[in-house]
# Entry
Amino acid sequence: MRRPDDVEMFGWADDVTVTDNDRALWETAEALTDDLLVPVYGVLDDAEASALTDGVAAIEAALAE
# Structure
């Protein structure tokens, strides 16, 4: 739903119809993800958070090559 131009990449047909129920379920999943992950990442201090984001950026750059 966030990247409709990428539906085929994820294995869906390009003519998928997204309903209001689909959007509601997506919102529920997003909220659950936040509920589960905020406490996990919330314990990181500034240096640890920077190390994590720097590592993710390095992985992204390596995959882009």
